[in-house]
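Memo to structure team: turn this sequence into structure tokens by end of day. - J.P.
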Amino acid sequence: MAARPPETGLMISRATPMRHLVRLLLIAGVALAAGAARADLLADIKARGAVNIGVKDSVPPFGFIEEGSRRIVGYDIDFATAIAKGLGVQLRTVPVTTATRIPELQQGKVDLVIATMTHSAQREEQIDFSLTYFVTGQRILVKKASGITDAAQLAGKKVSSVRGSTSEQNIRKTVPSVQVLAFSDYPAAFLALAQGKVQAMTTDETILLALQLKASNPADYVLLDGYVSQEPYGIGIRKGETALRDAVNRVLLDLEKSGDARKIHDAWFGPKSQLPLKRNFRIEPGK
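Reply from structure team:
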């Protein structure tokens, strides 16, 4: 029996005119070329000479607009800058929110997302992640005068968080009867607590501490003891972009090895910073 020709996905018969056959083959070639281009975003980034990174601009100290210079600065911005330098290209920052960061990554509006994003199994179904570059934990902030000292006391009460965040999901698991009011950003969620529209706010510890410090009367608020969950931050990367993910991970490991990752941490969370937090993690392979 003669061997069957390989299947190409094109419907071709003996009656197919030659001009139509050539046209079909050209279309198939263009489609294959487009698919190959989409599969190597790293090559596209290097060709254009710039990487577009989604960051937050209202979440100090990770990403916020600096008074005076009006530049976006912060912990995440420093990592974005280092990633761009490691890739040998210029950095273009694109402001994103918790709700828009994954859609904008999937739609190609940004190449990477460095925006306080927890690496979770649920999000892994949508995008890929780099190695963990920051670790924090979810906690609960309340007004001291509320008398609330434990998460269980939030049963039936209103709690603010940010739409599309893991914090929103975690607090519902911890206190099933809680009423979550989800806002578009953290300042709005904190304002709801300040105005008494909710009895508590929950998100990552670092973000809560930064918001508390910026309040007119920081002593009016208190963080409840204990963590709702652990939150490892990763850099968001589109599915299938293995070369880009590997390149980003190499930069992260180099930053750890050189000590620059610790320097970035100390600049924003060190003993002399406004938000001193001990660095109890390392950027490591496979994590």
